[in-house]
User: Fold this.
Amino acid sequence: MALVTQVRDQVRTLFRIRRDRTLTPPGHKPAVGARIACGDLRMTVQAGLSDALWRWLTKRGWREVFFRPDRRRYRDIPHADVTRLIDASQEDWDVTLAVATTHASHRPQTMGSRHARRSVRA
Assistant:
């Protein structure tokens, strides 16, 4: 099955079938624990996210991630930086988000991932 997927992806790339996804319209404020993303950045929604902060984030391209399984690789913003963003004043949101972006990092591969299990069995 993996070979079929890989060949299909290469054919799509060869014929330029791939297209960038358009930005979905902003929806309601996501629930606590939901994941939101913008480009290659992702954060988990925490309690205290105000409606004003959510509108501000959506104007900058942040949207809730609805599709599963999501195979994209994101840089996750640490929970402490999300808390700082929620607690910051409206005037400081730009600076706080910029600092949080610098602290974002790729999540390490875990043993529970599909590829890690295959390498252990082999």
About this structure: Residues 21-107 form one domain. The helical segments are 2-14, 51-59, 79-87, 93-103, 114-121. The beta strands are 35-38, 41-44, 63-64, 75-76, 105-106. The first strand starts at residue 35 and ends at 38.
